[in-house]
Amino acid sequence: MDEFITMDHGAGGRRTQELIKTLFARSFDMEAPLTDSAIIGFDGGSVAFTTDSYVVDPLFFPGGNIGKLAVCGTVNDLAVSGAVPKYLSASFIIEEGFKLSLLEEIVVSMANEAKNAGVRIVTGDTKVVGRGKCDGIFINTSGTGLIQHDRIHTGKGSRVEPGDMLIVNGPLGNHSVAVLGSRKGLSFTTPVESDCTSLNHIIDSVFRSGARVNFMRDLTRGGLAGVLNELAEITGKAIMIDEGSVPVDDPVRGACEMLGFDPLYLANEGKLLIVTPSNDTDAIIEVLRSFPYGSKAAVIGEVVPGNKHMVVARTVTGGKRIIDVPSGLQLPRIC
Amino acid sequence: MKYIDEFRDKDLLRKVTGQIERSATGTYTFMEVCGGHTASIRRFGIPSLLPSSIKLISGPGCPVCVTGMEYIDRLAAYSLKPDVIIIVFGDLMRIPGSDGISLRKMKQEGADVRIVFSSLDALDAARKNRNKTIIFAGIGFETTAPGTALTIRQAEKENIDNFLVLSAHKLMPPAMETILRQGNGINGFICPGHVSVITGSDAFCFIPEKYGTGCVITGFEPSDILLSVLLLVEQVNNGIPSVRNAYGRAVTRSGNHIAQKAMLDVFSIRDAEWRGLGIIPASGLVPAGRYERFDASAVMPVVVKPSSETPGCICGEILRGINEPSDCKLFATVCTPENPVGACMVSDEGACNAWYKYGEMYG
Questions:
Q1: Which of B272, B287, B309 is where one domain is finished?
Q2: Do residue B338 and residue A328 have CB atoms under 8 angstroms apart?
Q3: Does residue A1 belong to the interface with chain B, where contact is any CB pair within 8 Å?
Q4: Residue A91's domain spans which residues?
Q5: CB A66 within 8 A of CB A134
Q6: Range of B62's domain?
Q7: For chain A, first and last CA: distance in Å?
Q8: Across chain B, where does the E strand assignment appear?
């Protein structure tokens, strides 16, 4: 039987990784590790370069819309790589018949978010396709930023050591649940708002505090579980988290209990994982908590000795369970 | 969070596990027959809290797992018909039918297959697509069957004539009886929480009376499950099997009468095929009488070839509690959540999926 692209190939889990490794990275001769941004060195410095396409359904959701998401997502991919985001491109694929007023609203959100993040949108492209050929509007943004030499390792995790602590900047799962709650055709509503926000300022403050950041990643598709497994794979180390200390807002917990989702696997658009030596934990928590979207920052676990690269959670009951690589799709088209 | 945190309180759990350790003087094998229990047991790492003399095994409690391949083949056949929309609960998308077919694959190849959380959403699709035939895959035990029954009643009330149900709804007590008849050394049942909300605890009285096996109905929080284990251990120790209700906050003796009435009104009880258990008499529900016009298999019959399980797959033995997932040669090698061979790997509630995800092998 012929093989086809499935929704799982775009879910950010095992299938996505397979596709990237066996087709894209191989054909394009890309160098491992494949992180959120490419780091390109040249005389006198380094540049981070990234790109992302946005197909979220619905286009507008509590806490944001596809435009805001398209700016935050790319800004965050640059920032977690240790770069200071500078310039973005914006390309639009728009369906014939799309309301101009909606497009204006989306573009205004993009402009506002770019201003908040301190980046400029400097180039772009517009294509219109026939009715039914795309779902309203799809947006691609690419971005570049300058990266200081002493921050280059943060996306790669090369300095991670056993004993390092894991920190998240706030509660998980809000974006996924907010998008799900606003989707048509599902009889489920929620007061939860997306956490969609640009994290470059908070990240810059963490770096400026002088605390050592051994690894950083935003917790988008695949959620915390996906990033922890990636960390285990690239460092070859074991990771232990304490499930009870992972922050999750009550309405999100309620939705997860009811619908059978695991917050560790849900996508976020304003959350990041920071790995730091234990001495610097307090300093980082203090910086994070001084920002509104870091006020519920928490230490959630640590890198433990042992060469079995796997992720284990101590459950709230005191038992243990494996946190496996996300497989398949918890929710389609959340970003 | 209220109604959750108090049932996960560590001190409370320690008290119960302490009591279990003191009481467990022999060896015990208990079977849970609710997929929700299977998932909770793995998710909270319950086996790592119990003495090794107590073994928990998973029975036929996941509705997706006990659904025969032929059912998927039928849905796949419907999805090829023009102007048909197939509506399912999400888990069904990935269940393998014959020859590697699945609804997910049908969708990739252009079939209109949609996911809902409620059967009422399927009816809504019928209202909005009057020129198409909506086939809702009705699946589940006493928990979801009343919802389908009420949806069919609503369809009749509004005279919606493009809404059909392909029913794989099943009843749990007959399956438990089949397992007891086959004799698998089970010392007690952790009875299904949600099913019992509908049936009431009395529905399980025949088990201790006829087969001398104890039953404890319980909920899905770690303290619920540990309490049921303790009560079952005590029953075995005393030699007095009975039905105990440890889920009093949700379950009564006679259950939800409105739901029971809706089920009996809309469905007739027939023999049904269970994956791994074979044909079980009087264990399936099909729309009948004045509601027969909503039964897809009666109104729009499709012919599919007889199906057979993949060689090596021991889902049947796992559902009967004879084997554990790790006994299967395909487990975690050929059969994974991305590429499920057997139905127990597909659903979050399936025994193999829960073992794979929550890692029994690492304790």
A1: B309
A2: yes
A3: yes
A4: 31-152
A5: no
A6: 1-309
A7: 31
A8: 28-32, 54-58, 84-88, 113-115, 133-140, 163-169, 188-191, 214-217, 243-245, 267-274, 278-287
Residue of A nearest to B47 (CA): A319
Helices (H) and strands (E) in chain B, counts: 14, 11
> Considering the domain boundaries, does residue A10 fall inside one?
no
Contact check, Cβ <8 Å, A317/B44: yes
Same domain, B324 and B273: no
In tens, the pLDDT along B59-92 reads 888 888 888 889 999 999 999 999 999 999 888 8
Q: Are residues B330 and B242 part of one domain?
A: no
Rounded to a whole number of angstroms, the distance between the first and last alpha carbons of chain B is: 28
Q: Is there a single domain that holds both residue A214 and residue A127?
A: no
The verdict on B94 touching A (C-beta cutoff 8 Å) is yes
Show which of B269, B284, B309 is a domain's final residue: B309
Query: Do B82 and B181 fall within a single domain?
Result: yes
Q: Are A211 and A146 found together in one domain?
A: no
Question: Do the domain assignments include residue A2?
Answer: no
B175 and B261 inside one domain: yes
**Looking at the structure, do residues B337 and B195 belong to the same domain, yes or no?**
no
Q: Model confidence at B350, in pLDDT bands (50, 70, 90)?
A: confident
Query: Are A128 and A206 found together in one domain?
Result: no
Of A7, A317, A324, the CB nearest to B8: A317
A contact residues 288-317, partner B, Cβ 8 Å cutoff = 310, 312, 315-317
Does B362 contact A312 at a Cβ distance shorter than 8 Å?
yes
CATH number, domain of B301, equals 3.40.50.11740
Query: What is the three-class DSSP state of A298?
Result: strand
CB burial string A196-206: b at 16+ within 10 A, e below = bbbbbbbbbeb
Mean pLDDT value across residues B122-144: 96
Together in a domain, A110 and A188: no
- Residue in chain A lying closest to B48 (CA): A319
Give the one of B118, B337, B348 whose C-beta lies nearest to A260's C-beta: B348
User: B58 and B36, same structural domain?
Assistant: yes
Q: Is B359 on the interface with A (CB under 8 A)?
A: yes
A-B Cβ pairs (cutoff 8 Å, strict) = 85
Q: Quick one: what percent of chain B has pLDDT higher than 90?
A: 64
Q: Are A116 and A71 in contact (CB under 8 A)?
A: no
Which residues of chain A fall short of a pLDDT of 50? 1
- Whether residue A224 lies inside any domain: the answer is yes
Domain of A302, CATH number, reads: 3.90.650.10
Cα B76 to Cα A2, B96, B339, distances in angstroms: 18, 11, 18
Q: Is residue B210 part of a domain?
A: yes
Q: Which residues of A touch B108 (CB under 8 A)?
A: 4-6
Cβ neighbors of B331 (< 8 A, separation 6 or more) are B325, B345, B352, B355, B356
ipTM of the complex: 0.70
| B293 in A contact zone (CB under 8 Å) | no
Is B363 among the domain residues?
Answer: no
> What are the φ and ψ backbone dihedral angles of B268, each rounded to 5 degrees?
-110, 150
Same domain flag for A117 and A225: no
pLDDT tens sequence across B285-309:
999 999 999 999 999 999 998 877 7
**Are B49 and A257 inside 8 Å of each other by CB?**
no
Coil, strand, or helix at residue A143? strand
Nearest-Cα residue of chain A relative to residue B120: A187
Identify the pLDDT of residue B360: 52
pLDDT digits (tens, 9 = 90+) for A140-171: 999 999 999 899 999 888 899 999 999 999 99
A167 and A313 in a common domain: yes
